[in-house]
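Task: complex structure prediction.
Instruction: return structure tokens for all chains below.
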Amino acid sequence: MDSWAPRLAAVLLCVLPFAGSAAAAEKSTVKLGVVGPLTGPFAVMGEQWRQGIETYLAVHGDTVNGRKIEVIYRDTTGNPATAKQLTQELVTRDKVQFLGGYGLSPEANASASIVNSAKIPTFLFHVASPSSMPLSPYFVRVGQNIATNGAVSAQWALKSGKTKAYIAIADYGPGHDFAKGFREYYTSHGGEIVREDAIPLNTVDFSPFAERIDAAAPQYVSMFIPPGAPAVSMVKALAARGILAKTLVVGQGEAEDPDIHLFDGAVLNFHSVIYYSSTLETPENKRFVETLRTKFGPKALPSTFTLGGYDSMALIFKIVSEGEGDTTDGDKVMRSLVGYSYESPRGQVTIAPSRELIEDFIVRRVEKSGEGLRNVVIDTIPRVDPATFK
Amino acid sequence: MTLAIESSKALVQYRFSTYELIPFAVAIAFYFVLPDYLPLGTAICVTAIFALSLDLVIGYAGIVTLGHSVFFGIGAYSAALLSRSGWGEPVSTVIAAAAVAAFFALLSGPLLLRLRGLPLIMVTLGVASVVSEAANKLSWLTGGNDGLPGLIFDPVFKMFAWSIDGKTAYLYALAWLFVVLIVARTVVSSSFGVALQGIRQNELRMRLIGAPVLSQLVAVYALSAGVAGVAGALYAQSNGFVGLEALSVDQGVFALAMIVLSGIGRLYGAIVGAVVYMVVQYTAQQWDPYYWMLAIGVMLVLVVRFSKGGILGALDALSAGLKRRMETRL
Amino acid sequence: MEQILSAALFVLLYGVSYGLVLFIIAIGLVITMGLMQIVNLAHGAFAAIGGYIAVSLMNAAGMPYLATLCAAVVMVVLLSFVLERLIYVRLYGASHLDQILMTLGVNFIVIGAITILFGPNVYPVKLPGFLQGSVDLGLRRFEVYRIFVICLGLAVVVCLWALFERTSFGAKLRAAVDNRSIAQVIGIDVDRLFLLAFGIGSGLAALGGAVGAAMLPLEPYYPMKYLMLVLVVVALSGYGNIRASLGVAIIVGLIDTAGRLLVPAFGGFVIYLLLILLTIWRPDGLFAGRAP
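Output:
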């Protein structure tokens, strides 16, 4: 007779998880499903997205228009098939209203069919491949288009009087997309590409490639190497040859502020063209950085990954706060987003009809500052529209 | 310490027993009881088929290869390219993809299978790495890093459409698992299968009695490649996407772990191993992803150290022990 | 002409220094596989652990560089003794498959542990002052750090040669390799011998990981990432041929460096194609014959 209690408890314990998900998308909770690498070689993305999202919720609270915001994180370890399966489950089982994350373009590309069937607005926190956007009318690109970045870098190179450039990219899709964007703008505006190298992803020792660059003696080195071990090795190899000191070496995300300590000082004078720096002096950015530090420690620094999580949350807040906060019509939500402008920590941005952002690009240089080496903004290219800047 | 393979059953039963239907009953029940987890179930079926293909070569023929992911990837990309060029019939796509994979096995087998042991392991690893790199470079064919997305297939048998709830995908993959298992069982319990085990146990003896060792090995290699190709094609169809991860060498390593975990050379071991591995991985990632690799490593070490024959071997020992108990009671 | 000379000098200097780091890491596996017949895929893990210990001692405790190298080696040697008694002793005489799976399991455990302890990112290495900068060699500049690596590599070669050719330990080891049972019959404690050899091999891997950390960055996947390269050296030198492995490691370093310098688009393939072709041509290694 006294054995029914543990049995009941056991049954409840088994049923409870399902009960939670069985409760359909009530009007009260708004769910964002974040899909991406939380572990594995790209774990830093998931970690910084989470910081960005939680910072935004710390600034603005977690309730909008009477509805609570709930974020569900799912780990893909960088595998696109897993991304698709997890997206499918988030849509059918957890019944999320929004999707976000997708650290690598294959993850986003694989999930596009699910997104389209369910018509769920999906925020690509930083995926930069040109191949992704055409796959779904529900994708919003919160980061940058890598080909546009290449073109901006090319324009700045010419503006700085550098007419002989060397392109050094990692030999995979995003690298080639970047190289194409740079090359097409550069050569059609009078620049000369001295040489182009596609560096294999399994490269351990980058000194042969630094050697090739040194031998070609270009004025401008345009670079795209994935952040982490490859970027560290490449920059160190360049620095060891003094190339960073005598040539303009320009990348994008190889040396974000949180990563600078990995380079052992070798990254001094490294330039980058990107759309965000933690040292930007906008009031929104000051608030962003301060809140981040309050939550995650005085040494915490935001990167473009952090910003992706933060700004996507801002867009979700915008959607939910309008009128009734109706999130059931995906097409309607997407229409309301196009043309929307707001103050991001990076400055003012507008969502273009292509669902990519019109934003300012900045040129940064790693310099000594009061807090050690930091990316300092040295130039700005305002209001770049990916659709027209070529 | 005896080899995990040796402790498995040397000869498989000719007749199919009714116990073998139990896994499929469970799988059908899964469809009704846990409809929200069908994408996971489909992935398990696909992985089980791949693990099965590996069991055929390693468990029965003794060909230790770490590069089997090549055939999985070939199957996946073949199915993807067929879809992209307009051919959408799913079943024939799978058969075609399997044939392409088997073809490449027939090409490379005669050269590679002259090697044994460590050299074979190294070469298969090398080949898998080269193919993976090549697929990255041949981006005009493979879509490179961005992959081949948006693959559309016709409804299965013109009746069952692919839907977002994953129902068709699951039953379709399960059906293929059933078919593959029957084929594998038949091959393994035929005289050809016995010959393979003879080669694995003592190759010199087989040569002495005049068995055409190399052609037999190439035959099973091609069959296994075909099965891996089936898994790859199903991967492409259930995901609607193929990327470079389909050629990743890691898959072969994890599949190897799966079949060892539950017992090499037992076919059902591959299925049980795939289920256990993927379920543990799925739940571990929900709780704390960091401990995932740690858990797998500990499992591998423990299994190799203690349980020769893996989970199924342990179950066997248990049931044998129970039987003895019951007999002594009587 | 000067360009060709400069390129040749580059390949020589950088290829040799790269190859020597590979040698220091791989020689332990050559010893283990050749002498003890164990496919120890976890060898890269010893290198990683050595690297992490050395770098964290320098960062956290501010120990001088050379002291961290010694500390890392000593700690990994002790660890290897423990692991040998616990795990590897079961693998003597086991099938290759079992060995692969067991050591792969150890690899996964180490990768998981490193991620938990040090996080998923690259672990930053700061070279000590006396190793920074470069010297002018006339034709070109060359980094001080790489000169140090070359000197250390050559020192390791000399010490190993002295150990194997000039000490009774080396003689006993060679005897045990040639014929284990006879060696035991004449009174050689083969078990203890193997334990010491395993410790030496693992210690060398730790040294390679610690010294090479500025060239091969430390990250959780280190054990798997460089496993392929190490296996290439071991496989091509013939599973136990220590003298050959020095030559092979340097050749691998030279070819890889030259490949990436001259044909960068295919630089990534060269090493794998070399492995495949050479293994098919000479399955027992380039210098078949197992004398250490």
